[in-house]
Design brief:
This protein has one domain. The protein is mainly β. The strands form two sheets. Strands 3, 4, 5, 6, 7, 8, 10 and 11 form an eight-stranded antiparallel β-sheet that branches. A four-stranded antiparallel β-sheet has the order 2-1-12-9. Helix content is 12%, strand content 44%. It is built from three helices and twelve strands; from the N terminus they run H-E-E-E-E-E-E-E-E-E-E-E-H-E-H.
Length: 162
């Protein structure tokens, strides 16, 4: 395959978490279409754990796929027509949501809220590096050439997998 062809061939996706006010990315995650990443945190009012699973489609649009929590908290609960409510052990779960969010902004909570991104088993605590900051989650398609280069030379904001 020529370099030109590798530069034009789709190579997957890249999710970036960047401060809204500028600066370099806090996280850069290579993803495949449909692959999930999780946003985990503790509800600021209820202090109860919440997990939100997200995915990307082939063009980089972000979807929320599932929410899991111990109990209904302020602002939590089923949205009519979105997903299916089930119980998994002690958790209430809204599964099969596949609701588009597109790029979104998150106001990162401070210590105790522990906004954490979980990707391929690796946890990155945003509250530890950007407490109270607004960060943007956005994704884009990348070329095969770019993906191969990033495999050899990962972005400094890409967490190391064990």
């Amino acid at each position: 395959m020529s370099l030109l062809a590798a530069g034009l061939t789709p190579g997957g996706l890249e999710l970036r978490v960047t401060p809204v006010k500028g600066g370099g990315p806090l996280l850069v995650l290579p993803l495949e279409p449909g692959e999930r990443f999780t946003l985990h945190y503790y509800h600021s009012v209820e202090n109860a754990p919440i997990w939100e699973e997200h995915s990307l489609d082939e063009s980089g649009r972000i979807y929320i796929e599932e929410e899991r929590y111990l109990k209904f908290g302020a602002g939590m609960g089923r949205m009519p027509g979105v997903g299916r409510m089930v119980r998994r052990g002690p958790y209430e779960v809204i599964e099969n949501m596949h609701m588009p969010t597109g790029d979104f902004v998150l106001r990162v909570g401070g210590p105790g809220v522990n906004h954490t991104v979980i990707w391929r088993g690796v946890s990155s605590n945003l509250s530890a590096v950007a407490p109270h900051a607004a960060v943007k989650f956005s994704a884009q398609s990348v070329s095969l050439l770019y993906r191969l280069r990033r495999r050899l030379f990962p972005h400094t904001a890409t967490p190391t997998q064990e």
